[in-house]
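Input chain follows. Return structure tokens only.
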Amino acid sequence: MTIFRTYTKNKIVMKKTTLLISLLFAASAFSMSANARRVLFIGDSVTDGGWGRSGGSMKPASERNQTDQNHLYGHSYMMLCAAHYQSERPDADVEFLNRGISGDDLARLEVRWEDDAVSLHPDVLSLLVGTNDVHYYLQANDGQSFDFAAWEKRYRTLLNRVVTDNPEVDLVLGTPFVAKVGKIGSADDYALRDSLIGRLDSIVCHIARDYKATLLRYDLLFADLTATNPQHWIWDGIHPTAAGHQRMADLWVRKCDEGDLLTAPRGRRVTIAVSREELERCPGGPFEADWQSLVNGYEVPEWFKDAKFGIFIHWGLYSVPAAGSEWYPKHMYNAMSGDHRQKWGKQHEFGYKDFIPLFKAEKFDAAEWAQLFRESGARYVIPTAEHHDGFAMYDSRLTHWDAKEMGPCRDVIGELAEAVRHEGLKFGVSNHRIENWDFMYPLKLPLDSTDLYRPEYAGLYGPPQKPTEQSGMGPKAKAAAKAGVTEADIDETALEGRHPQSDAFLNEWEMRVHEIIDKYQPDLFFFDNGINYRTLDPWKLRIARYYYNSAHQWGKQVSLQSKSTAYLAGSIKDFERMSRAPKQITNFYWQVDDPIGHKFGYVEGLRLQKPEGIIRSLVENISKNGNLCLNVSPKSDGTIPDDQQQVLRAVGQWLKVNGEGVYGSRTWKVFGERNVRYTIKGDTLYAFVLRWDGQPFTISSIGRNQIVSVESLWDGKKVKTTAVADGIRIEANGNATDAAACFRIKLKPEK
């Protein structure tokens, strides 16, 4: 038995009837798959349009004919929307449902909401309601004021019930409207009616902003249309004519197409179903998903060998608390749980998701950032597209938990890609999503003391679970939760045993990687320690094949970057922090990612490196076949603090003078001696003296008869040399520096 409702004027009458399940989901003339994207229209008579042969009555859905294709949608704008997509896109896998009921206000909607909205599990819910709320209020004439706060609360409650059932649902909210036409035009209460509906319009607009919903301003649409010949658009002041419904449908289609609401795949939550066919789909090119193919076909891009210096960026929701760095989302449920409760509240009331509205990035200017990075002397930039926290900083069709739909409501990665390339720099991305698997889940907090296990947030936090010893970050992750160990302490080693993530989670991760590759065509794609398991090789190899074959079609030199032996071939090896950098010249190209301060993500009181130390690190790396990728830590408002900017510009000033010995250089036969480091270009050797005291110095790796000339790079002046017992004395004098002084040594060509 199922409860259905009929309505009389202001009273809700409940009556029971038997309903065959086959009637509710009757076979449609349009063949829909199980994964069809379901679009539900719900509201009052304007949406109803007499669907199911109701004749425009207040019959509930259970009493309407749901099999008659001639009357399946009614004759409202809803029918016109469905007709548009089914005629223009006959191959689109979209199912349309009408659940508009004539006479409904919010109270009546609330009674049937479970049956006619939540239980249908829509992917798109289009709601238009409010006209009858005002009508019944005026009809009652009881002297009470209209309770706008209660109306808004009820409206939000209905939306929350749908969003809880499907956190990925797309909401389309229409504003109610009224026109001074027909019976409404002659009514004494028109001015009051118009004022009340205007207040409801403002509420709907505010709710739409909060829920990141698609907003349809029907009130403005009809205000413009009825300015002349109003009867052509609305015949009685409330119900549109055929022409009016067409204009409503035009607006609906246009706004929903802008948001790509009807073409996005159904079920965009953790984890989305990904077929083997989708995983195997790949652009044509020379690469296959095996190691030998990478060995045979991969080369480190020449531009990377020449670039030497890059910028890394850690910026996201974790920048808001400005504590615990990019690992705050883990520590707030573990080692820093007490600190979080004291400042922000209990974790089940204020969880990590609640930082999203506070992450406004209101001062973010991608062009200013890119100009600063160019001034720093960097030649490539790698922002974090998604960190372990699961919040994507790019515009994704595979998740709603992204910066385009929430927080700043901007495609941060897209804006940076455009700005960085405009400055002539290469653009990469980093993706840490694979480590989202159990990154935040607590060890000791009771399940009901956090918001982590609520299914509506699984798309952000990862599938609800208890963490394991063998997490996506390796065996030390559990220690990190207990003792505040950070990623810098996690072993960069190939991990034994089976990866902890489910295949479904990994398949979704792979599709997100494909999405980033397709959308932004990155010159570099950086992965963190989470991919180090050998058992992840099938996914990693497919990604390499997809990326490198895509680049083949783009005509670009690109590269993956990874740690340890995550990739046995086909990747630039990265070392986190200078303490892990190779100490000798290697036979492979590599990179160190090192933070400008003591943390990667912004924290209050961030202790910065001095520019001189950064310069010495850069010189150390390039003398041994490596690059330096310096991480910057923006604040949540989108600004890079002044002290970080000063450091970057100081490095840039040094590179303006000494860049000749940096950019495009290669390693020499030795990386250096004592406090001298070498690079070479053709027949020119560059000697960088670290922490030069401004006095003459001796080098032993070269004979005097090999030298044509020596010049100081900062002023171009020739420097004398003297043969001494242990080598060649460079008779240079100048200002002492804690950075590095560079000398150009012209060599005789080798015979």
